[in-house]
Amino acid sequence: MPLQKDILNFINGEFVAGSKWFENRTPTTNAVIGRVAEAGKAEVDAAVNAARAALKGPWGSMTLAKRVELLEALVAEITNRFDEFLEAECADTGKPRSLASHIDIPRGAANFKVFADVVKNVPTEFFDMATPDGKSAINYGYRTPVGVVGVICPWNLPLLLMTWKVGPALACGNTVVVKPSEETPRTAALLGEVMNKVGIPKGVYNVVHGFGPDSAGEFLTTHPKVDALTFTGETRTGEIIMKAAATGSRPVSLEMGGKNAAIVFEDCDFDAAIEGTLRSAFVNCGQVCLGTERVYVQRPIFDKFVAAMKAGAEALKIGVPEDKDTGMGPLISKEHQNKVLSYYKIAKDAGATIVTGGGVPDMPGDLKDGCWVQPTIWTGLPEDARVIKEEIFGPCCHIAPFDTEEEVLEKANANEYGLATAIWTTNLSRAHCVAQKMEVGIAWVNSWFLRDLRTPFGGSKQSGIGREGGVHSLEFYTELKNVCIKL
After folding, report:
1. CA 241, CA 251: separation in Å to the nearest integer?
2. Catalytic site residues?
3. What was the pLDDT predicted at 203?
């Protein structure tokens, strides 16, 4: 099917325009490929009211078995329309089809399946107690939906990270109002069609498009009838959302920035460490919150490791999504391209050794106007350099040598972020020790981006608040009440 030219808000089961429009551009050429209806206060208010009405309507009274049945139908219909979702995601992001077809779309569908399974199989507490009159009482836990959930999504993995929140929210019986990134509106809107097709009641899933301040983002996060807010994105925006949530004492789940470190010991499986670190630094053009921008390599293998990383980065084919050989696409936008290139200049001015990259690749034809940058590796900078301290969110990393375990732990933890790490070693005792001492929410050993969706996911320090995944998502998306019955 041809791409939609107009991307509309989805409110109460209907596609509606707003008072204004903004451009939808593809990052491969920076060409306008459509326009997006911006939601104003009226549209956001309508979406929230529709979500609240659905809680009191058929969705709120629906049995768990029926709700699960509808979520499983969602999975089947997303799979049935796989190619449409793939085309929409690649048009918005410019990422290789090989990546989106392997990660973004399958995981986007799986998020509904996993949480449909979780909500069916999670028990609550039960206690039998003696009472002062010599009789007894029973206490049991009972989960109820938290209510209307505002979901604010990023642009790097639009469908996957949106359904990572919408999946458990709906499984637990909530309704949602989704604000996708203004850069990547298409799959959130397309999911509205799927919701209607499988029979999800009107108002359960709503989408409002727009920006942050004085637009859909601000109107949603400050709306008094939104009961909880969940967000993935940069730390500065997360702080703004947390302040908004303080009014009304509403719960938040925040997955924010990262400046993740890989630690490579000399006893590692060298080929596996190179393959994993190349992926973690350059996949999705480095636009992954879990990606690696700091690499610490034990000194005896440092030079060999840098040389292998250089060869791997230079072997990446930069190209369009449709090319099956494309290993790296463009950045999301001209604005983000300028940001990443500014850090490339900062590194050069600070005296970094540029192992490879550091600029813009020479692209043919219309692609010259796209949002391309080269995969870039630096060495030689001190630990207080800006490109080592600040999140860049591009295809780049700095590689530094270390000698001892104590030294590398101090360096890796000396950062305001604490999202993830990857540790490469064949020493099991060392792996346990280092993983437990890293100040992060997730520590991979001899792997990267290996995710069991039942496990807790989230960050520490300025990388986030709360955990989602498996039963941990239920802690956010439900209210756990105690029922005490005197016998």
Report:
1. 11
2. 255, 289
3. 98
